[in-house]
Amino acid sequence: MAEVPPNPASAQGRISDPLLRYVLALLALIGTVAVLWFGQSLFVLMFVAGIFSFLLLPLCQRLQRRNWPLWLAAGVSCLLMVLVFFGVILFMGTQYAHFGKDLPTLQQSLLTKVNDAQAFLETRFHVAQERQTAWIEDKLSDLVKSGGTVAVSLFSATGAAFATVLAIPFITFFLLLMKGRFREFFSRLPYNGDGTVLRLVENIAGLSRQWLKGMLTVMLFLAVLDTAGFLALGLEYAVLLGITAAMLNVIPYIGPWLGAIVPVLVALLTKDSAMYALGVVAVIGITQFIDNNFITPKVVGSSVSLNPLASMVALLAWGSLWGFMGLLLAIPLTGMMKLVFDEIPGLKPWGYLLGEDKAQRSAKRAFPLSSRRKKGAKK
Question: Is 362 helix (H, G, I), strand (E, B) or coil?
Answer without folding.
Answer: helix
